Amino acid sequence: MPRALFFAFLLLLLGALTGLAQLPLPADPPYAVAHLTGTTNRDGTNAEVTALREFTRRGGLFLIDSSGRSEAFNTSVAALVKRVWPDDQLVPLMPEHPLFSAFIPQAAAIKKIDYRKFWHLTHGKSETPNLHALSLHNKLAVIFAPDDLTSGLRGTNTWGIAGYAPTSAELLARNLLLWPLKDLPQPLTNTPPATESTTQPSTPPLPSPSFSPTPPPKAADGGSL
Fold it and tell me: Which end of the chain is more exposed for a tag (fewer CB within 10 A), N or C?
């Protein structure tokens, strides 16, 4: 499956599981999260550097994960981050950070993390998430996962991948995608279902595209051409 379609499917799946589709979304920027993954060097063009800086300045969250845990990718990403945000730096996210809590009802309280067996063989035992973050104006702007998230989200168990087990990858992805909604007003919980006669929907449905086909021209004798 092409990567763009895969992550579109992931967003739809998480929306169904978490009620994301019913939550208010930030209007500026129009996309709350941008994602970068890879296995080789990722230097970034000058246009990409400018776009990333503007995206985070407007409040977007830039999520990076290393597919398979590629050291070449990790090294190049560290350089890219320094190039985009020269006055700031990535720092480890501590286990007590709110990102790992149920900061809104749809988020998961993550007490421990399961890594793949290959990760344990190469890095030892751990149940602590390995995420690094860069903040701008006291707000998370960049989150970097040097261990694999992408393969875990696909549910694969391929040997040689150093990263999160599928269940933990899904929990982390859920909270990462929901994080931009943390400070927005949330819908009331445990409210009675709406009824047609007494309640109007809180968010009006998007209008359906309307098409007004032009009728065929009339022939001189009144019939259609």
Answer: C
| CA neighbours closer than 13 Å in the CB half-sphere of residue 107 | 20
Query: What does the alpha-carbon distance between residue 148 and residue 115 come to, in Å, rounded to a whole number?
Result: 10
62 closest CA partner among 86, 85, 43, 40: 85
What are the residues whose beta carbons fall under 8 Å from the beta carbon of 216, sequence distance 6 or more?
A: 224, 225
> Which pLDDT tens digit goes with each residue over 154-167?
887 888 888 888 99
96-118 residue pLDDT tens: 999 999 998 889 999 998 888 88
pTM of the model: 0.67
Measure the CA–CA gap between 115 and 125, rounded to whole angstroms.
Answer: 9
